[in-house]
């Protein structure tokens, strides 16, 4: 063996080093606190240590009526002053009422001014000037914190929306308004709050049932191992039971269609054609026609004939597919360590996802605070222009646009780094896709090398090398990193294009015309098909790389033409394997799911006292079912890779050898018997 695709290997290493450098730069410039903590109108974090806002962890909106929805409040900026406060208001109050009573009720003023701008303590200032300068809110309403922001404390009483059991409130501008006026500003908050309550209950269920969930995962693992072992003996039986079951069901369908066709004979109107009655919204009308049942019977007869003919002409290939499945079970039995390799792939992908997510957050939070003019007047020409909060009051903007504020908008900058943050995010996503595909490619090549060493062992298991999985992993890393990176690069480029197309489709959804929509749909479909094709080619190319140690392009070409020369066998093996593995996943997930259902619903008397008290028993139940399916998928993906590797080795064996003493077959005796060719040469001791 020698190193393959060295140039791509060097590029891959350089890209990884650059990716690390990008993460370091993002870490230097970024600040995740901008995501964790809300930011007030002055660009200060709420709750940040060693600042004036250290004990003020909640964001308060002066006039929440100006905010269209919670989405605006959380993600964008609401055109009103925002302050950090230590707690949300717990009562109704207006600045007018507080100002009028501050002399003989100073406690009300002291409570209200904690929601005013820091340092403001001038209750003698006129109401008009206070509201114009937004020194204080015109009114406060009972609120509660959600996502570290103060939202009105909505509740429903006898079907009527209320806030603190009141249906009206004073807006601080001389008007009495209904609390329904707050509905638009807080649209959907009740549903989100209910979701938060449900989320807390779900968290509690996980906290008290996690070990039972792990037990369910362990049972799923044991069932998956048992299914793979039994496939050596039951693969053929399961497949033929399914095939004959399908034939029987279709046969019953043919008989039922004929019975309905004969039963409708002589009934008035049953001899009409579908063309005569035209289109009907009630599809039961068509079932009263003999022509309908005749058409069904003809279709089912056609399907039945096709299946029978396929079984007749493809019986030998089906037998080969089943024999390969059994051989795959035998190979895994000799190399059991391969079943646990998906854990390594999972860890590598988890590292890639974590690094990508952290880098994306630091990139997104890079930059300095950018302030923009927020004006109440829609015709203000300075609205949404950048401003400097320190010099804003000395400009003429406040004169031309009364009530305008210079408030924090977002984080950004004018430096070269900040201008190219979007490009860096694209690079982050692209390298992430490349690394994930490389981790998957490494796993496929490693498993293929281990199973190929089993097939090409002349005396099984005596000639299987020691530690075949570890040796295969070492060969893949030492010699073929460049080839694996090359295949992963091609796939990552296609996946990035698909991501960009999805982004464009999402952005243009409201404005695109019919031609643009059609073009995007065609492009998305084409690149989806291209991705599926490349995954198929890459998978088989990695197998050839593991066997012969050639570069990616040569291996992909040889694998493709080898498969094309055995295209019927490929199709039969693929479908037989897919069916049996899907059946195994359903059996494992369904069996463990049924057991978990009986357990969590206390229907197993022996364990009735052990069942934890849950808010929603379906939470651990669904977790066990989904987790069991994923566990089974992890084990069966190894099995599928084993079968694919053995199949390519089998095809190569047939083309390179003839069963003679000089060129003996390496296939098992069962495969040789199915082929019905020359007898196996006696294996040398």
In short:
The protein has 685 residues and is mostly helical. The protein has 21 helices and twelve strands.
What value does the Rg take, in angstroms?
Answer: 35 Å
Gross morphology: extended
What proportion of the residues is helical, as a percent range? 55-70%
Biggest sheet: strand arrangement: 1-2
Pfam family, one: Choline_transpo
Family: Belongs to the CTL (choline transporter-like) family.
Keywords: Antiport, Cell membrane, Glycoprotein, Membrane, Transmembrane, Transmembrane helix, Transport
Transmembrane segments: 7-28, 210-230, 237-255, 293-314, 334-358, 431-458, 479-501, 579-601, 613-641
Name a few traits of the molecule.
single chain; 685 residues; mainly alpha; two-stranded antiparallel ribbon; 60% helix; extended; disordered C terminus; cell membrane; glycoprotein; antiporter activity; transport; transmembrane helix
